[in-house]
Amino acid sequence: MDQDFTDIIYEVNSQGAARLTINREQAYNAYTTHTLREIREALRMAAFDHGVNLLVLTGVGQKAFCTGGDVKEYADHYVKHPNDFWQYMVHFQDCLDAVRHLGKPTIARLNGMTVGGGNEFNMACDLAVMADHAIIRQVGTRVGSVAAGGGTQWLPIIVGDRRARELLYFSEPISAEKALDWGLVNRVVPFAELDAVIDEWTEKLTDKFGECLRYTQESVNYWKDSSWYSTIGHAREWLTLHFAHPEPQEGMQAFVEKRAPDYRAIRERQKAGRGDFWYGAPVRVCPSCGAHAIPSEFRFCGVCGHAMPEEE
Fold it and tell me: Staple partner for 291: which of 80, 84, 88, 303, CB 3.0–4.6 Å?
């Protein structure tokens, strides 16, 4: 285990199974930018270690496998600095690319809630075993984002178009039983039996040729890669721009404040032609101090306090 990691635990057992565990139980194993950097480094270690035969991705505890990006970080930083979200998306893309192209089989051990980017990590893995108490959920449209980091690309491939739209549009959880029926996981067992399945699969995969497994993984990735590389660049750019919009500002803040987002208020603003900015477009200039980009609905200059003239 690398002692330098703070947000994850990385270890390799005597059977050659590497285990990468997201260790942020207090945040339901949501990942921050720092967590993504650590995940990427651990995946590199697993890929290059000839003693590793496969990798298991999981979370600490029984409540959550991973609940996606830390919305508190989104609200505290990226809503205020949307341009920085581009870098965040690069980190996230690097992690999902590294999972899919590890060169060794990857297993998602879904020990609890698998939400948002957590399900995108699940879908990036080759195989998945799920605890029977866990749920899977995409929440982008609920918090002011879009599941364009794997959800929109891979759900139609795995569960079909109509089921994918149901998951993405409604942002409602589905049970482990339904996840198995829809093909999002390979097996569902009680939590106490998760590791028995991991041990079983470890034995089966170790008794296969590693180079053949590596190329099989690369070949089977064809459809996932085709949809991914055709869209992830666009998604990265759009999500970065969208963080400056009232939708994520309201959605992320509501999450932090533990309240329901006021979707209808945003829609009413859009209906009235005022949906793009909270206080009007930043187009006015203060006649007193010359400050630019003052929102059109401001009655006073935010820099010098001078009263803004009435618009004609």
Answer: 303
pTM assigned to the model: 0.93
Per-residue pLDDT tens digits for 15-24: 999 999 999 9
Q: What is the DSSP letter of 192?
A: G
What one-character DSSP code corresponds to residue 147?
-
Helix axes 85-100, 33-48, angle to 10 degrees: 30
Q: Is the distance from CB of 54 to CB of 106 less than 8 angstroms? A: yes
Q: Are residues 144 and 219 in the same domain?
A: yes
In whole angstroms, what is the distance from residue 56 CA to residue 20 CA?
Answer: 6
Number of domains within the chain: 2
Residues 217 and 286 in one domain: no
Domain span at residue 312 reads 279-312
pLDDT tens digits for range 277-290: 989 889 999 999 99
Residue 111's domain is classified under what CATH number?
3.90.226.10
Q: Which two tokens stand for residue 183?
A: 């093909």
Q: Which residues pair with 114 in a beta bridge?
A: 66, 136
Contact 93, 150 (CB under 8 A): no
